[in-house]
Amino acid sequence: MSQGVIQGSMREAPLPDIIQLVSQGGKSGCFHVHQEAAKARIYLRDGRIVHAVTPANEGFEALMEVALWLDGAYRFEEAPVEVPVTINKPNASILMELGRRMDEWRVIRQKVPSVELHPASTLLPGEVPRGMNSREASLLALCTGYYSVSELAELTEKPLVAVAKDLYGLVLAGHVALKGLRSGRPPKLEAPERPLQELTPISVMLAKAEEAPATAVVLQETAPPPQALPEAQERASEADAAAAPPKPSTAALEDSQRMIKLMNFTQRIAQASKHVLPEQHHELVNSLQARAAAQIISGEGPDAVKGLALAISRAAVEAGCDGNLVRSLNTQLKALFTTR
Predict the structure, then answer these.
(1) Is 194 left (phi over 0), alpha (psi -120 to 50) or beta?
(2) Which of 128, 248, 282, 308 is an S-S bond match for 292, by CB 3.0 to 4.6 Å?
(3) What are the tens digits of pLDDT across the range 258-305?
């Protein structure tokens, strides 16, 4: 490896750890990150993250896009950096958020392995599952096999990770299956906030544009809307202020951080179990961890973590594992809870 160049795989060494290592040295340069055809650049100046860019985003959003590239590779080249400063947050908070999203995506990816897959409902017409919240029900109505996961995020104007998290629960419950090819028809939207043609996937729109003949468009001038009276403007401002959504509370942020910690703890339990159990039982451990993760998302909290350890121990006994092996497994699991 030449001087000033650091490279490796994100599967072997998490990107946040490598960025932190380089930033502690006060280095300036660029991280070139790629996963298959997707590419990103992350710039450091004197050890501080100042800019990031992908084909779709730049700044902090581009950096968070990289959180989905768990199998990517990186190469850091040390050099003077002359780029605009689009990221002003401290490195500690940036890397914490990047690591949190990566941990969250590792769990989600067990059921949603690619954002290019097309979710399709497995329910019969008129069938309504129990225990589903309104957000999941709205998303399920859009799962016709036509839109991909990433297109659903654009359609609903929600973060990709949030949509994938809801799909994780729907797939886990057996309400949705993921398909590799587009199928079905676009779902019918009730009272769309924007024209339906704007919601058509970009690839379909481009194909239609190439086939359509060129036409002239005439713009019709319209009279400007009448100016509101000062009193009416004041009342409208008060109404807008009253209708504005409240800012997230400290308790909500703490709940989110608590959920991530619980998710991370289920991963530690799964890793410790796989270290003891033979390889033929690893898939069972993965499925039990996925179930515990879904329970955490639904609000069961620490009970889901304890239940995971008990479920793995019980499954090892039912699978006919040797008594000494089961005792070793229980010892490892107890050690996790005592040193937590």
Answers:
(1) beta
(2) 308
(3) 777 788 888 889 888 998 899 888 888 888 888 888 788 777 778 888
Q: What φ, ψ does residue 145 adopt, rounded to 5°?
A: 90, 0
pLDDT tens for 28-81 read 999 999 987 789 999 999 999 999 999 888 999 888 888 888 888 999 999 999
Tell me how far apart the alpha carbons of residues 209 and 69 are, in angstroms, rounded to a whole number: 32
Hey, what are 333's tokens? 């699991």
Contact 299, 320 (CB under 8 A): no
Is the CB of residue 129 less than 8 Å from the CB of residue 123? yes
Distances (CA, A) of 74 to 2, 8, 27, 29: 15, 6, 16, 13
Alpha helices in the chain (DSSP H): 15-24, 60-65, 91-108, 134-141, 149-156, 160-172, 202-211, 230-243, 250-276, 282-297, 302-318, 323-338
Whole-number Å distance between alpha carbons of 252 and 258: 10
Mean pLDDT, range 229-233, rounded to an integer? 50
Exposed, middle or buried, 325 (CB in 10 Å: 0-12/13-18/19+)? middle
Q: ∠229-232-236 over CA atoms, to 5°?
A: 135
Q: ∠ CA(185), CA(189), CA(191), 5° rounding? A: 160
Domains of the chain: 5-89 (no CATH), 109-209 (1.10.10.10), 255-338 (no CATH)
